[in-house]
User: Which sequence fits this backbone?
């Protein structure tokens, strides 16, 4: 029986379902702050630069720094125990965010959330890659990432409604408490998949791991491309709710409904379509796993520009949907393609290395760049200055597409599995 047709045990699909739900909770936590930026700004009297720090650097600071050591632990020990502990920590810190009274307190609470979420994605991607064969890897990772999209879209709606009627503090507290039962679920019910390891894998020095990964140019170009695209997508994702409120006068509840729907439609369509198309195309030529992200990223670029320049709200939402399709196709397929350049015992570390730069630069500086540009342009454009911050952030997309193409050129030489 071929790898493609071999049945996958039901426990593997159950594990994928729980991991997908946890990814949904993580993304709901992140989008919550983005939706609540305006009432937080008003109550705590913050500038757009400070809001950019809260939504970006505060989270990314230790998320990026601790991602690598936690990923090393995941490559050597139990990934389910690590995931359970991280989930418990970030949900508690999200709850504490709702009690913050000053900018430093809220900043430190978001740093704590970043510590908790640092071990989540590397451990999850490693579990999925070791549970499912390569022929199913792109599709299963796309399903996992759909959980994040559902968390963003449903979370945008829930946070918009709760924030409107209950206030931003109660909203963060409720979202934080909702995640605690899942910490027990993953600890006691998700199977720890077996991973093929060489004898030296458990004690392999970190310099050898980095040397192997950074010696593959395809891996480096994927890492650069994923980071550059993240500056745009994560920056716009954090500021889009505020943009819709300021430029088009939408209420928080309206933003929750419409922005959540736009994200859900575009991202889920993009992730599933990208997973199916890449699975089909890669059987003919594995370089399609990198050509597809390059094409999709280029497709997202004019959509981001038109999103920023839209004169009416329906046009902005339409281009947000179309941009989300392109961005989701690219990110889903690229993370799956990354696994082909990494040995099984290095997968969590490899994903964490990519997420380190994606978080430190994409999530850390993407929202900040937009917020800074908005503050600098406010004297000339007033409340419309946020448009031009988004426009500036969109310029990173063509640069990202170029590196995906460079990765494709090295794909056949650098592939290890």
Assistant:
């Amino acid at each position: 029986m071929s790898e493609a047709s071999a049945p996958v045990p039901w426990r593997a699909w159950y594990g994928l379902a729980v991991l997908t739900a946890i990814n949904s909770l993580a993304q709901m936590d992140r989008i919550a702050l983005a939706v609540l930026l305006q009432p937080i700004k008003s109550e705590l009297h913050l500038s757009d630069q400070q809001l950019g720090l809260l939504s970006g650097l505060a989270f990314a600071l230790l998320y990026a720094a601790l991602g690598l050591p936690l990923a090393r632990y995941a490559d050597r020990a139990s990934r389910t125990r690590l995931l359970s502990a991280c989930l418990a920590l970030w949900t508690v810190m999200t709850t504490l965010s709702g009690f913050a009274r000053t900018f430093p307190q809220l900043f430190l609470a978001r740093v704590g959330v970043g510590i908790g979420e640092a071990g989540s994605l590397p451990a999850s991607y490693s579990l999925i890659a070791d549970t499912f064969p390569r022929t199913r890897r792109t599709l299963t990772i796309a399903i996992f990432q759909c959980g994040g999209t559902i968390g963003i879209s449903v979370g945008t709606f829930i946070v918009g409604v709760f924030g409107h009627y209950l206030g931003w503090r109660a909203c963060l507290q409720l979202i934080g408490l909702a995640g605690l039962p899942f910490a027990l679920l993953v600890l006691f019910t998700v199977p720890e998949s077996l991973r093929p390891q060489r004898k030296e894998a458990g004690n392999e020095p970190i310099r050898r791991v980095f040397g192997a990964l950074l010696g593959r140019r395809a891996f480096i170009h994927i890492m650069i491309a994923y980071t550059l695209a993240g500056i745009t997508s994560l920056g716009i994702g954090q500021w889009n709710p505020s943009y819709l409120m300021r430029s088009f006068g939408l209420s928080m509840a309206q933003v929750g409904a419409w922005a959540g729907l736009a994200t859900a439609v575009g991202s889920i369509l993009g992730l599933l379509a990208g997973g199916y198309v890449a699975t089909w195309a890669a059987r003919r030529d594995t370089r399609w796993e990198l050509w597809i992200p390059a094409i999709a990223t280029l497709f997202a670029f004019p959509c981001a520009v038109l999103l920023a320049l839209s004169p009416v709200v329906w046009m902005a939402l339409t281009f947000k949907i179309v941009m989300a399709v392109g961005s989701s196709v690219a990110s889903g397929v690229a993370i799956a393609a990354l696994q082909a350049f990494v040995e099984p015992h290095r997968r969590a570390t490899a994903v964490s290395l990519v997420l380190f730069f994606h978080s430190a630069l994409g999530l850390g500086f993407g929202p900040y760049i937009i917020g800074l540009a908005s503050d600098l342009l406010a004297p000339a454009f007033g409340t419309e200055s946020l448009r031009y911050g988004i426009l500036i952030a969109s310029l990173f997309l063509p640069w990202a597409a170029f590196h995906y193409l460079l990765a494709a050129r090295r794909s056949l030489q650098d592939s290890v599995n």
Remarks:
- Residues 10-192+206-414 form a domain with the Growth Hormone; Chain: A; fold (CATH 1.20.1250.20).
- Residues 1-5 have pLDDT under 50 and may be disordered.
